[in-house]
Amino acid sequence: MDPTNKPKGPSPHYSLYQRQVFHHGGTAGQLPTFSVHPEELEDSAKKKLTDRGYLYASSNAGMGWTDRANREAFYRWKIVPRMLIDTNTRDLTTNIFGHKIPAPIMFAPIGINKLYTPLGELVPAKIAGELGLPYCLSTAGSQPIEAVARANDEGASSHNESNKVWSYHGPNGREAKSPRFYQLYMGHDDEITLSLLHRAWKSGFDVLMLTTDTWQLGWRPTDISIANYTFYYKGTPGNEIGESDPVFMKKYGDELKKEKGKWIDSHVWHGKAHTWDKVKWLIQKWKEISGGRPFVLKGIQSVDDAIKAHEVGCDGIVVTNHAGRQVDGAVGSLDVLPDIAKAVRDKMTIIFDSGIRTGADVFKALALGAHVVEVGRLYVWGMAHEGESGCRHVMKSLLADLDILMTVAGYPVLRDVDPSALKFNPHGIPPARGEHAKL
Description:
Order of helices and strands: HHHHEEEEHEHEEEHEHHHHHEHEHEHEHE
Strand content: 5-15%
Number of domains: 1
Protein name: FMN-dependent alpha-hydroxy acid dehydrogenase
Cofactor: FMN
Family: Belongs to the FMN-dependent alpha-hydroxy acid dehydrogenase family.
CATH class: Alpha Beta
CATH superfamily: Aldolase class I
Helix content: 40-55%
GO molecular function, one term: oxidoreductase activity
Number of strands: 14
Active site: 322 (proton acceptor)
């Protein structure tokens, strides 16, 4: 961990963040204010937040079996370490839709970030910019699209000279150091949909991601027990993207004053399903608006749907079960990833989401066919502790975890991470919550 004896490689030495933490503790007595162990992090976030805030990010569908299935799937795949490999430098870089990024990790779209810190989505957008990682804004966000774009640019501008390698020229000639995704919940008013697309494109979001699995909220008993639907409560966030949209406000602004849930009920979780024909229409419109930039479909769990997504013109898919929040008793996302990757990986970009908690999880998802992974709950829990610094600490810790894992496991380059790096064990399940402390 000697920082003066680190040969320069393609990727930042994320591993040095561990040394930085140790050094601050040993020389100045400056200890982290919270644990980044995923289970301990969630538990401490629960103590920091109100029930509404904690459950918005943590509630699962039904009995929570799908959330459990996500974690069990990771447990069954074991990493095969290799020894005496030169891992003095690592290459964690990858390309996604024409963007070269320093690590295969992106910020997943999560709504209502103001539940976790007053600045809401401005915080993860800024941190993503700092780290050069892709950021994805949710239509259920609690900051206007334009404000989030500015925060992302602010973070990107803080990159030092060595990070300029991640630059690319985005929409309208904009030079950026991290790509931006806009995640769309699509209602049934096309004028509003098109308004959101135009706003996103003008603000430098150059990949559109349509979520297909949450036009209707799943049955989430822990939310039901406290009527946890923030959008209906006075003085709470959740309508900011609608309130800042000129088309929505012109058509429905008066109704929004009378009924706080108008935005979320009519354009986000409206309860009326779309079909593949509507996806074709949306792809066409986005391509026209953006000059042909990528379109991604989120919510894929079957090979047939992955193939269909390619056939209708999608450039990528997100393999996810919405982190277990929609269909109780569904398959774990990692369980379906290998077959989906076998069918379409050479034809489109595969983003993996659902259950990522550690560097080992990232490694396993990449080995089984993902090009990049999304992280969600981790950064939200970090924000719950210390806002910007908490979010930064969690994400830098995850990057260090992945970097160190590849170092000690003998995998210096991402392209070496393939199914041969893993061994499947169908037996056993991960310890129950809290059992790690007894081992």
